[in-house]
Specification:
With 449 residues, this protein is an alpha/beta fold. It has helices at 4-11, 13-23, 75-84, 98-108, 121-136, 193-201, 224-237, 256-261, 287-294, 297-301, 320-335, 339-361, 395-407, 426-445, and strands at residues 42-46, 49-52, 57-60, 114-118, 140-144, 157-159, 170-172, 185-188, 206-211, 240-245, 267-271, 281-285, 365-370, 373-378, 410-411, 417-419. It has a seven-stranded mixed sheet with strand order 4-12-11-10-9-5-8, with helices on both faces. Strands 1-2-3-15 form a four-stranded mixed sheet. A three-stranded antiparallel sheet has the order 13-14-16.
Amino acid sequence: MATIHEELEARTPGSAEVGRESGQVLAQQIVDTVVMGHPVYIREARGSRVIDVDGNEYVDLAMGWGPHVLGHAPEVVVEAVREAAPRGVQWGWPNPYQEPLARLITEAMPCAERVVFCNSGTEASMYAMRAARAHTGRSKVAMFEGGFNGAHDAVLAKAVPESPADSPEFYAMGQGIPAEAQSNLVMLPYLSEAALRMVRERADELAMVIIEPVQGSNPRVDQGGFLADLREACTEAGVLLCFDEVITGFRLAYGGAQEYFGVVPDLAITGKVPGGGMPLGVIAGRAGVMEVFARQFDIYRDDRSGGPSIFTAGTFSGNPVSMSAGEAVLRHLREHPEIYPYMEGQVERLAREVNEHCMREELPAHVAAAGSMFYVRIQPGGPIRTARDADSSLREADDMLPLLMERRGVMMPALHLCFISAAHTPEDIDLVIDALKGSLAELRSAQMI
């Protein structure tokens, strides 16, 4: 273990040089939560593989942090971008390329009667909250412990582990977020009857409840009953329910978690997959709620007679290249429904084989899975039910795992949230399984677990 950094750095001198040069001008090169334990810079990617600037090839488990459900650079998307780019990559004016993608989304997602495009999941989260507040006339928004709903001030919050389980307190993630920015945030306990009670009790002040139907930090598929109960509680309270499907949209199923669990929210936000790898955020929902977007021009005229309206802006929103890439990938997914059971089957196999191995060898590790995403957690006690059950006592081993995987030819995100694609072959999954088993064995030999 003492030499792994030296070994990896010896294999990646080009990445080390890029890192030195970049550090002179970039304050942050990519989101810190996904940075590896030493510099790795990717030069290109195809299918299930990425290649770094030194020519090392790896099976990729990040897949762009979720968007590439068809794999890196699929021909249908590359061709769509190749055709779109010469027409102009951004105009600002309305274009005819939004409607085909929007129609595909409304046909796929049960809640989607109207759609608004922006540029990221964070933007979509921000606009969905603004829309809910305008529509209901209320100010507070509730999110769930263990959830992540965007990197904007209002919801960049984390529950205090020592706070009461049935009414968690929270704190802002990082500096620079005024307390006032989160004064209208309510933190709900995940998978708890107490959350349903809180929604009903605070109906007069809650505009919206937002939830990841599958939490990125805790992927599982046994929460359908809770989602249905939450839908019922929000309906009774007159509170809008928003599914944060930035990850699950068009990945868990073609119609997202709404299709998978059979629970229909009032609003949904998504991104990643429906952008075809290009920047995209989507707000979708019932027509009556989405009307607050349609009345935006009333703001300029100071005319409120038509009903509540909100302001949005985005120079690159709805740009023709993202629209064309997104249309191409969604059409392909619609025409090839066999992609979803294939990916789910590969992840189920991976989780089963690794978890059985960990039980036999009495290793404190577990793979939690949902569809084509999975999370590798190193901790005592086996699988967790909620984020509150997480144990960080083996954090050093947890941090070391991606480096050991890299040495075995697998790029695993530092957060341990992994994705596969239709391009991942059974042989790729075999390699990942073997790499996980070997890495865990090495951690055991080093007495880190």
